[in-house]
Design goal:
Strand order of the largest sheet: 1-2-3-4-5-6
Structural class: alpha+beta
Shape: flat
Distance between the termini: 57 Å
Radius of gyration: 37 Å
Helix content: 55-70%
Largest sheet: 6 strands, antiparallel
Number of helices: 14
Strand content: 5-15%
Length: about 475
């Protein structure tokens, strides 16, 4: 009987789980597209390129979609079982709630393991791919668009002016083209009655077809004594192809984008954290002693007397300036001394600023690596936490369908996501330790999961309105009777 019950529960769970997962993934994908829509529109990208960006962009959202899908499916499954009195029948037959949830918990453990695999392997790879693709898209120029009466300078070494343009056929009228691509400063000026200027299908070449015009070739003399010349050539039809760098899609090697913490797995992050910790410790342990001896007092023979006391102070690495020795210097020597001191102070200021900048950069990278390492472990645990919230909650509310489960799922996920984003931000800024930044949303929801599991196991009427009415009537009867007495 138990095996049949497990099959029934799994069959009721897997359908909503798969459906809710793809719904959540679709919503997250639309959010990704909305974020980058301005950079994708108007670039003439092919369908294959757009689908590739969507695929890799969606891949690193899978680990975030697992917890919400688990919560929604658990609430819906247990709510349907409770609404159809199947859950009540199982409890009447002596099957406890933990035993009913055992098969679902095993499936959830598998999903948590899959979430870790995705977060540790697929997400870094997808991030590298997306970063490389979006870099190529940003480097690619938009399509060629002419405005009536204005010069277009989007093509390298060319400036094109069009009087009017037919919006249907794309025929250009009244063309004026300045071409400075020739070496030596020579320039070609072309005037044409009409023509077409388009990019080829591979977007590598500019296809120019002109009708009824003239070419004016200005040739600059190579030496000062040579005379500049101007040639004039008329044509009825002229066709040319020229390279247009920047309009075609040049693919960049994604390995160049592997320095970000989001593009590394747990083992790589661990190595980075160790090396960054050593770098930060080295930077914070640096004292001002090398600065004093190498920059400020590297040339102190003029002002430090060669007495035994001065030698002892020098040996102890604490130079002493003798003011009386400065007073005995001439005005020229004082000016030179103060000039050298000013230069040394400026150099030392530059050294301090550079060391401080490098230390801050290393510390910033350390914070990001640490929070990313903790996130890869906390997200799979969040899948289990959301299951322990959703399954008992569904057993308590005993409402199936889409209405109540969606509302409760969205509320809990918003709470989790807000805490998640806040903790991550504070951890990256160094305000919180990375451990708290990665685990605080799980620690906040874990007591709720334990409490709901306990209430559902004991058949609590936590969300039953009749239970609240009965408790209210008891309190009213108790305190009302005491007042009459």
């Amino acid at each position: 009987m138990i095996k049949k019950v497990d099959k029934l529960i799994l069959k009721s769970y897997l359908g909503p789980m798969v459906a809710s997962f793809f719904i959540v993934l679709f919503v997250l994908m639309m959010n990704f597209l909305w974020k980058y829509i301005d950079e994708l529109v108007g670039k003439g990208l092919g369908l294959g390129m757009i689908m590739e960006i969507i695929f890799y962009g969606t891949s690193f959202l899978i680990s975030m979609g697992f917890p919400l899908a688990t919560l929604f499916a658990a609430i819906m499954t247990m709510g349907n079982l409770g609404e159809n009195y199947e859950l009540l029948a199982l409890k009447s037959a002596g099957v406890s709630l933990p035993r009913i949830l055992m098969s679902l918990f095993v499936v959830t453990l598998g999903m948590a393991a899959a979430s870790f695999f995705v977060s540790n392997n697929l997400v870094p790879y997808s991030n590298r791919k997306v970063n490389a693709l979006m870099f190529d898209v940003r480097q690619q120029k938009q399509k060629i668009e002419f405005k009536d009466g204005q010069f277009f300078n989007g093509v390298e070494n060319m400036s094109i002016r069009v009087e009017t343009q037919d919006p249907v056929t794309g025929l250009l009228r009244g063309l004026l083209i300045y071409d400075t691509s020739a070496a030596g400063g020579d320039m070609m000026v072309t005037v044409a009655d009409s023509g077409y200027i388009r990019l080829t299908d591979d977007r590598r070449f500019l296809d120019v077809t002109l009708y009824g015009g003239e070419n004016y070739q200005f040739t600059r003399g190579r030496d000062w004594y040579e005379v500049n010349s101007l040639g004039d050539t008329a044509f009825e039809m002229q066709h040319s192809l020229s390279l247009t760098p920047g309009y075609d899609m040049n693919r960049t090697d994604e390995s160049l984008f592997g320095s970000n913490a989001q593009t590394k797995n747990v083992a790589q992050l661990r190595v980075d954290i160790d090396s960054l910790n050593r770098e930060v410790n080295r930077a914070t342990a640096t004292t001002y002693r090398p600065l004093l001896h190498n920059y400020l007092f590297s040339r102190d023979t003029m002002v430090v007397s060669a007495t035994a006391a001065a030698r002892r102070s020098l040996d102890s690495r604490r130079p002493v300036l003798l003011l009386d020795s400065i007073a005995r210097l001439s005005d020229a020597e004082k000016d030179r001394l103060f000039s050298n001191a000013s230069v040394a102070a400026q150099n030392s200021r530059g050294v301090i600023d550079w060391d401080e900048t490098m230390a801050k950069e290393a510390l910033n990278q350390l914070y990001r690596a640490e929070i990313e390492w903790h996130k890869k472990w906390s997200l799979p645990v969040a899948v289990l936490v959301f299951f322990l919230i959703g399954a008992p909650l569904g057993a308590i509310i005993r409402k199936g369908g889409l209405g109540m489960p969606i509302i409760i799922s969205v509320v809990f996920f918003v709470i989790y996501y807000v805490i998640y984003i806040t903790g991550e931000k504070l951890a990256k800024e160094g305000t919180w330790p990375a451990f708290w930044g990665g685990w605080i949303p799980t620690f906040v929801l874990m007591p709720i999961a334990i409490y709901l599991t306990w209430k559902a196991t004991n058949d609590s009427g936590l969300l039953n309105t009749e239970w609240y009415i009965i408790q209210y009537q008891r309190l009213r009867k108790k305190y009302g009777g005491s007042k009459r007495a």
